[in-house]
Amino acid sequence: MAIWALADLHLxxxxxxxxxxxxxxxxxHVEKIAANWRCVVGENDLVIVxxxxxxAMELSGAQPDLDWIAALPGQKLLVxxxxxxxxxxxxxxxxxxxxxxxxxxxxxxxxxxxxICGTRGWLCPGEEGFDEAHDEKIYRREIGRxxxxxxxxxxxxxxRIIVALHYPPFNRQNSPSGFTGLLEDYMVSxxxxxxxxDGGRERIFQGERGGVTYRFVACDGVDFTPVRVVKDQG
Length: 234
Known about the structure:
Layout: E1 3-5, H1 29-40, E2 46-50, H2 59-70, E3 75-79, H3 90-96, E4 101-103, E5 109-111, E6 114-119, H4 135-155, E7 161-165, H5 178-185, E8 190-193, E9 207-209, E10 212-216, E11 227-230
Parallel strand pairs: 1-2, 2-3, 3-4, 6-7, 7-8, 8-10
Antiparallel strand pairs: 1-11, 5-6, 9-10
């Protein structure tokens, strides 16, 4: 009963969107994901999917992508990404989910001894393109949403916590942020994230810092293969 993570699936079964325009690594990426997923994930495992799940603009258009994910081995937990425009209210999303799929928003998900918390996240101050007039408000809002999620786990008496974000919790200089502060304050064990697809991903911090182990899990950065976060949840 392991816990895995894989972000940025970028599925488009309803209205196919060729992904190889973003580089040859993306050629036949859906087939790669399915084959690699089946090689490593067991039926009793959990796979966290931290955002950019489907290119669909409406929930109905995302349904084939959700069904495709549901057919893969394991339980799956979805977190919203910046391209998940189909993700409307959480109640509507949850009502549309097939069996063995769950969605996370302002709360936590329990798998064995672990609580999974998270939110979309946002650009952090100091990141190239960060606009205080626009981005600061969203950044602060996402920090608040992560705290709501962490608070829900704390109220439930959960001490073993994994956080899933779509955006990295720091800028390309790997500076501390409001996100990393919360992770340390709540003694989070693991943080998984994706979003970055350019050459700058080599500079994104991975490893242990402040008691938190950070893992970058965007598809094209991990050979389209789920990354194991916890070997045994028990």
